[in-house]
Design brief:
By secondary structure, the chain is of the alpha/beta class. The protein has two domains: 241 residues, 3-Layer(aba) Sandwich (Aspartate Aminotransferase, domain 2); 74 residues, Alpha-Beta Complex (Aspartate Aminotransferase, domain 1). It contains 13 helices and 17 strands. The strands form five sheets. It has a four-stranded mixed beta sheet with strand order 1-2-3-15. A four-stranded parallel beta sheet has the order 6-5-7-10, with helices on both faces. The protein has a four-stranded antiparallel beta sheet with strand order 13-14-17-16, with helices on one face. A hairpin with a 3-residue loop joins β16 and β17. α3 packs parallel to α10 and α11 runs parallel beside α13. The chain starts with 16 loop residues before the first strand and ends with a helix. It binds pyridoxal-5'-phosphate (PLP). Pyridoxal-5'-phosphate (PLP) binds next to α4.
Length: 388
């Protein structure tokens, strides 16, 4: 019997080790891992530079309190600030903590300028910002909030793509609009660049803040370091997590100078957030992924994957409805429930994961090799033949 709580619907398989794009069971059976811990292992399993970094740092220093200076954190924060819109960074340990901290920053900013009534956050209905109490009510999903009342106040929602409703829901109490630049769990739905620009315009006009949740779509996943970069929009606050640790738990809130000024000493904190071990790993991940040539490669290889998947869709037009997403955040939307299809892919040694709206999420490591993409395509083709 298992003593783990039953809050996951787990596949009956486990793995002993991983290397790059592959996972191995105890019996040595090899699986092509296009889940990668849900966009977490951005450089695949057991990347030699990360292994080396962890080994070295583990002999020096794991953890010190944020009561002291942490030079390793200074270094990563500087790298993030130099490379992105951000002026300041606040480290956490996970995505939900990062989105919660983003909400706190937005509220605290309006408090600090004498407008504490501006405290409501406007979000997309059935989006995903994590599983803490505030985050589930921010996500506005009935399923995630069921049984966890009383409702956490302060969140309003509009339907994805419903611009009229979005404008109507902004009141004098709105502090910020918070959206995922590309909805992950919600079905790999890209917010088009022109929409992001409009969002920013609305925020400017209404003097409210723009929070772009890049926990899943950020850190090179889209082919750009941040998914919003292509639109040229500058958000005020960006929570990140998943990909930045390459498998080590790291979260962070990136913010501009204006809002960061509200986060005075004692206003927020984290015991584990920003510890030397996490910061060293994060720095190495950042150095690799932020390189122009690395991101160019993500763009090139992911375009190939999208093009080929679209060819598969053309071959099976009654089975595959749409190829969604950008970069290596890919959604294969079926006309039918995707559960059997995912299980069949797994039988053929390809691991993928579901998202809403009958979507199969495909999340290779960002440094995936082209012949591993071809291997995945072959398996997808084969399974399509079974279900066409
Ligand atoms: C995964 C995710 C989160 C939550 O991250 P956790 O580390 O599971 O808390 C928040 N926002 C988005 C967009 C995510 O994909």
């Amino acid at each position: 019997m298992s003593y783990l709580a039953k809050n996951y619907n787990r596949k009956k398989i486990s793995f002993k080790r991983g290397k790059g794009s592959y996972l191995y069971t105890a019996n040595g059976i090899r699986y092509l891992d296009f889940v990668q811990g849900i966009a977490v292992n951005s450089l695949g399993h057991a990347h030699p530079k990360l292994v080396k970094t962890i080994n070295q740092q583990s002999k020096k220093l794991w953890h010190v309190s944020n009561a002291f200076l942490i030079p390793e954190g200074e270094i990563l924060a500087k790298k993030l600030a130099k490379k992105t819109f951000a002026d300041y960074v606040m480290f956490q340990n996970s995505g939900a903590e990062a989105t919660e901290a983003a909400i706190k920053v937005a509220r605290r900013y309006f408090y600090s300028i004498g407008k504490p009534h501006k405290n409501r956050i406007l979000c997309v209905k059935n989006s995903f910002h994590g599983r803490t109490l505030a985050a589930i009510y921010a996500s506005g999903s009935k399923k995630m909030t069921e049984g966890f009342g009383p409702r956490i106040a302060g969140f309003d929602h509009f339907k994805f793509g419903d611009h009229k409703s979005l404008k109507k829901k902004i009141t004098k109490n709105t502090a910020a609009i918070m959206v995922e630049t590309i909805l992950g769990e919600g079905g790999i739905k890209v917010i088009p660049d022109w929409c992001l620009k409009e969002l920013k315009k609305i925020c400017n006009k209404k003097k409210i803040l723009l929070i772009l949740d890049e926990v899943q779509c950020g850190i090179g996943r889209s082919g750009d370091f941040f998914a919003f970069e292509k639109s040229k929009v500058k958000p005020d606050i960006v929570p990140i997590a998943k990909g930045i640790g390459g498998g080590f738990p790291i979260g962070a809130v990136l913010m501009n100078k204006k809002v960061a000024s509200a986060m005075t000493a004692g206003s927020h904190g984290s015991t584990f957030g920003g510890n030397p071990m996490a910061m060293r790993v994060g720095s190495v991940v950042f150095d690799i992924i932020s390189k122009k040539s690395f991101l160019e490669n993500v763009k090139k290889n992911s375009k190939y994957f999208h093009d080929q998947l679209n060819k598969v869709r053309e071959k099976f037009p009654k089975l595959i409805k749409q190829v969604r997403g950008r970069g290596f955040l890919i959604g294969l939307q079926l006309y039918r429930d995707q559960t059997d299809f995912i299980n069949e892919l797994m039988k053929n040694k390809l691991l993928t994961i579901r998202a809403a709206e009958n979507v199969i999420r495909i999340l290779p490591p960002l440094n995936v090799k082209k012949n591993d993409i071809d291997k995945a395509l072959k398996i997808i083709n084969k399974v399509c033949l079974k279900y066409k």
